[in-house]
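A quick aside before the break. I want you to see a complete sequence-to-structure record at least once, exactly as it would be stored in a machine-readable document. Don't worry about memorizing anything.
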Amino acid sequence: MKLIGITGGVGAGKSLVLARLSERCRCRILLADEVGNEVKRPGEACYKRLVELLGEGILLPDGSIDRGRMAAAVFSDPGLRQEVNGIIHPEVRRRILTEVERERARGASDFFFLEAALLIECGYEAILDELWYVHADREVRRARLKEYRGYSDEKIDRIFASQLPEETFYRHCCRVIVNNGDVQETYRQIEEALRQTG
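That is the input. The structure line, written in tokens, reads:
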């Protein structure tokens, strides 16, 4: 079973690529963001430490962590953001590795695709067989984020500024899937990547 990371900037179309992969090969797909949300739930590994660090102001009435409030609390404080990441990322990594081993033991998948925007920053290259970059031009991404998520230009600019430059993705990833809007062309590149990897 090959362990492949899927990364790329916001709005690049990673979801489209993953949906196609799920149709075209025997695979398991895991979204790191979903694992990250799991570990913050009440009673889970990171919950108590995050509330102690950030205060009860990040909680919703039902006691769960409000992601928006948490993001606002750490947004303007790089030191605090680092502390939060130091709590969350090791637990997320541990759970991902557990899921990979579980899937290997099942023997039902040829590929395990791990999707995350921060695969490079979080050092996942060390555990991956390959890292694939889903690329779309900035203006294509901007148009998608406005249309599908209702983001303002200011919000998009902030997000773009916080993400790695394209050269870094190209340097770290062995395959690039360009997803600028021609879906059939994107599918062709996915087929090619699967053929070369399998």
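Two observations worth writing down. The first strand starts at residue 2 and ends at 7. The chain has two domains: 1-26+110-198, 34-109. We'll return to this after the break.
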